[in-house]
Design a protein that fits this description.
The complex is a heterodimer. Chain A has 12 helices and 5 strands. Chain A is α/β, with parallel strands linked by helices. Chain A has a single domain, classed as Thiamin diphosphate (ThDP)-binding fold, Pyr/PP domains (Rossmann fold, 3-Layer(aba) Sandwich), CATH 3.40.50.970. Chain A has a 5-stranded parallel sheet with strand order 1-2-3-5-4, sandwiched between helices. Chain B has 2 domains: 155 residues, Thiamin diphosphate (ThDP)-binding fold, Pyr/PP domains (Rossmann fold); 132 residues, Rossmann fold (3-Layer(aba) Sandwich). In chain B, helix 4 runs parallel beside helix 6, helix 9 crosses helix 13 and helix 10 packs across helix 11. Classes of the chains: A alpha/beta, B alpha/beta.
Chain lengths: 296, 323
C-alpha cells in the first residue's frame, strides 16, 4: 500500500485510466481464448469482473511479480474462483505468469486449473472454488496482518450468487466485529448466477442495505466505470475501524454482445470457433490477433 | 462468584485441560501461534489460553465455517493458527478444512475436544464418531488421537513443531494417566506399552486404557496380549504393525469411533498390504450414539475392556484356524 500511494494519487490520470482499460480489454480477449481452447469454462462472470481486476492490479494494489514473497504486499483473493480466466489474464498482463501459459486453462498438466490453486500459482494467494471460502480466507489474512501490525490491505472479489452462502455472512459479521479496516470486499453484482437471475433463484436484494446492517462501509458503483472504481477503491482505503465493500453493478458477459445479460453464459460452457471469433471481433481484435489467440 | 454455576468437566485431568495448559506453556516458543475459538473456550481447554494470552485468542463466535477458512488465511500471512472446537461442530467446517487448509497446504492445526461417546449426556447429535475417518481422507492431513494427559501435552508441542495441517482429538472426560514424564510422543510412531505374543490390541484415545484392562482380563486366562498405543492414525506406523502381525499373528483394534474409516481401517489397510493376519474391530458398529454417561455408553456400545477381550479371543481363534 505504501508504494501504491503514489499511484493512487494519479488515480484520475487519463493515462492510467487508458492503461487500465487496455489491460481490461486484454483480459477479456484472453479469457475468451482460454475458455475456447479449454472447451469449457465460465465466461459470463469472468467478463463482468475484468474492469475491477484491471483496476486492482493496474493501480490500487501494491502487488507485483517482484513482491510475491514480500510480506508487505497487498493481497487479492478471488473468492468467486470460477472467474479465474480473468485473474490469470490480468496476472499475465502484469507479468505474474506467461500469457501463452495462461491459455492452457483447465488442461491436464497446466498450473492454470479450472479454479485457482495457490500451490500451482503462488501469486493467486489462496485456493478457491468453493463459494464463501475465499472471503473467509481474506478475513483471516486481514486479521493476521493486523495482529502482526503489518500495513498491507486485503482485497477480495465475491460473486453475487455467492451471497447465498451462509459463510459469507459469518465472515461479514466477523470482519466488522474485528474492525478490519484493512479489508476491502468487492461484489461483482451482475444480477445473475448459474441457472437464472439471483432474484429467481434466491433473492439477495437489498444488497447494500444488508452490508450496511452488518457494519460495513458500503459504496455502490458502476463496476465498468474505471475512474469510479479507482476513486472508490481509494476512498475505501481511507475507511477506519470498519471493513469496506464495493457493491459493483456489472453486466454479465460484458463486452461480448451475445453473452451480455444472459445467465446461459455463466458456464461451464463450450465456445464454438464461430462464437469465439465473434466474441473476439466484438472485443476489437483484428483477424491476425484472433488467429494467434485461438490457434498459436 | 459463589453463585456461578460449576462448568462440568472444566477442571480435572482431561485431555482438553492438558491441551489448554500445554498451549499456555508453549506461547513464548511459538510467538506466531494464535488460537481460534467458536464460543466454546470453556469446554475445549482454551480458557487457559484466553486467560494467559487474550490478545492471541481470536473469537469467531458460533461460526465454524468462517473460523476454519480464516485459519487458512491466518496461516497464509505467517501466523500459526490453532483452530479449536467441539469435534461434531468442526465437522461442519469439513469442506473449509479440505479446501482452505488441506488443499492449500496450510500450516494450521485443528484440535477437537468432545470426540466420540466421550461427550456423554449431550446425546447422539453431539457425538462425533466419524471425524477420524473424515479428516483422514483429506490428502496430507495428519490425524492424531492421544491417550492421556501427558501424551496430549507432548502431542500439542509436536503438532506445533510439525509443518503441515493436523487434526487432533482431545477429550472431555477425566482421563486415566497411563504414561509418566519419560513418555515420548512422536508423530507417526506407535508404542508397545504391554508386551505379549498371543494377540496385539491396537488402540487410540480413551480406548488405550480399556485395551490395557482387556489385557489384564486375558492374562487371567493365560492369554498374553500385547498392547499398542497408536496415537497417530495418519500416517499410521506400518513398520510397528508389520512387526506385531509377524510376532503375534492376529490383532484387535479399539476406538471410540465408527469401525468404518477410523483406526481399525487404517490398521487393516497397513496390515493387509504388509503381512495379512486376522483382525477384529472394536468400535461403534456404524451407528449414532445416544445420551448417557460416557462409561455407560461405552458399555452399551460394547467398546469396554470385556468386549475388547472377547474380540481378542475371536482373533486368536481365527489365527489358530488358519494354522
Amino acid at each position: 500500500m505504501s508504494t501504491a500511494t503514489s499511484l493512487r494519487d494519479d488515480a484520475a490520470s487519463p493515462d492510467l485510466e487508458t492503461q487500465i482499460a487496455e489491460a481490461a480489454l486484454f483480459t477479456r480477449r484472453h479469457t475468451i481464448a482460454s475458455i475456447y481452447r479449454a472447451t469449457s469454462g465460465h465466461p459470463g462472470g469472468a467478463l463482468s469482473c475484468a474492469d475491477i481486476l484491471a483496476c486492482l492490479y493496474g493501480a490500487e494494489m501494491n502487488a507485483w511479480p517482484a513482491t510475491i514473497n514480500d510480506p508487505g504486499r497487498d493481497r487479492f483473493v478471488l473468492s468467486k474462483g470460477h472467474a479465474c480466466p480473468t485473474l490469470y489474464a490480468i496476472g499475465a498482463w502484469h507479468g505474474f505468469c506467461d500469457k501463452t501459459d495462461a491459455l492452457t486453462l483447465r488442461r491436464l498438466g497446466s498450473r492454470f486449473q479450472g479454479h485457482p490453486h495457490v500451490r500451482d500459482l503462488p501469486w493467486v494467494e489462496t485456493s478457491t472454488g468453493s463459494l464463501g471460502q475465499g472471503f473467509s480466507v481474506a478475513v483471516g489474512m486481514a486479521l493476521g496482518l493486523k495482529m502482526q501490525k503489518l500495513k498491507p490491505r486485503v482485497y477480495t472479489l465475491l460473486g453475487d450468487g455467492e451471497m447465498q452462502e451462509g459463510e459469507v455472512w459469518e465472515a461479514a459479521m466477523c470482519a466488522a466485529h474485528h474492525k478490519l479496516d484493512n479489508l476491502c470486499a468487492i461484489i461483482d453484482y451482475n444480477k445473475m448466477q448459474s441457472d437464472a437471475l439471483n432474484e429467481d433463484i434466491c433473492g439477495i436484494a437489498p444488497l447494500a442495505d444488508k452490508w450496511r446492517a452488518f457494519g460495513w462501509t458500503v459504496f455502490e458503483i458502476d463496476g465498468h466505470n474505471i475512474p469510479e472504481i479507482l476513486s472508490t477503491l481509494h476512498l475505501a482505503a481511507s475507511t477506519r475501524e470498519r471493513p469496506s465493500v464495493l457493491v459493483a453493478h456489472t453486466l454479465k458477459g460484458k463486452g461480448v454482445p451475445y453473452m451480455e445479460g444472459s445467465p446461459a453464459w455463466h458456464g461451464s460452457v463450450k465456445l464454438s470457433r464461430e462464437q469465439a471469433e465473434t466474441a473476439l471481433a466484438a472485443l476489437g481484435a483484428e483477424q491476425d490477433e484472433i488467429k494467434e489467440l485461438l490457434d498459436v | 462468584m459463589s453463585d456461578a454455576p460449576a462448568l462440568i468437566g472444566s477442571s480435572g485431568d482431561s485431555l482438553r485441560e492438558a491441551f489448554g495448559k500445554a498451549l499456555v506453556g508453549l506461547a513464548d516458543e511459538f510467538p506466531k501461534m494464535v488460537v481460534l475459538d467458536a464460543d466454546v473456550a470453556g469446554g475445549t481447554g482454551v480458557h487457559h489460553w484466553r486467560k494467559a494470552h487474550p490478545e492471541r485468542l481470536i473469537q469467531f463466535g458460533i461460526a465454524e465455517q468462517n473460523m476454519m477458512a480464516a485459519a487458512g488465511g491466518l496461516a497464509a500471512v505467517g501466523m500459526l493458527p490453532v483452530v479449536t472446537g467441539f469435534a461434531c461442530f468442526l465437522e461442519r467446517a469439513y469442506e473449509q478444512a479440505r479446501l482452505s487448509i488441506g488443499y492449500a497446504k496450510r500450516n494450521a492445526k485443528i484440535v477437537a475436544s468432545h470426540p466420540g461417546l466421550d461427550v456423554g449426556p449431550d446425546g447422539g447429535s453431539a457425538q462425533a464418531l466419524e471425524d477420524i475417518a473424515a479428516f483422514r481422507a483429506i490428502p496430507g492431513m495428519t490425524v492424531i488421537s492421544p491417550a492421556d494427559p501427558i501424551e496430549t501435552a507432548q502431542a500439542t508441542r509436536a503438532i506445533l513443531e510439525f509443518e503441515g495441517p493436523v487434526y487432533m482429538r482431545t477429550g472431555r472426560s477425566p482421563a486415566k494417566r497411563l504414561f509418566g514424564d519419560d513418555h515420548v510422543f512422536e508423530i507417526g510412531k506407535g508404542q508397545i506399552i504391554r508386551h505379549g505374543i498371543d494377540v496385539t490390541l491396537v488402540a487410540c484415545g480413551v480406548e488405550v486404557a480399556r485395551a490395557l484392562e482387556a489385557a489384564e482380563l486375558l492374562a487371567e486366562d493365560d492369554i498374553n496380549a500385547r498392547v499398542v498405543n497408536m496415537p497417530t492414525i495418519k500416517p499410521i506406523d506400518s513398520d510397528l504393525l508389520r512387526r506385531c502381525a509377524e510376532e503375534t499373528g492376529c490383532m484387535v483394534t479399539a476406538e471410540d469411533h465408527n469401525i468404518f474409516g477410523g483406526l481399525g481401517s487404517a490398521v487393516a489397510e497397513a496390515v493387509t498390504q504388509n503381512l495379512p493376519c486376522p483382525i477384529e474391530f472394536v468400535g461403534l458398529r456404524d451407528c449414532f450414539g445416544t445420551s448417557g454417561e460416557p462409561d455407560e455408553l461405552a458399555e452399551h456400545f460394547q467398546i469396554t475392556a470385556p468386549f475388547i477381550a472377547a474380540a481378542a479371543r475371536r482373533a486368536i481363534a481365527r489365527k489358530e484356524g488358519l494354522s
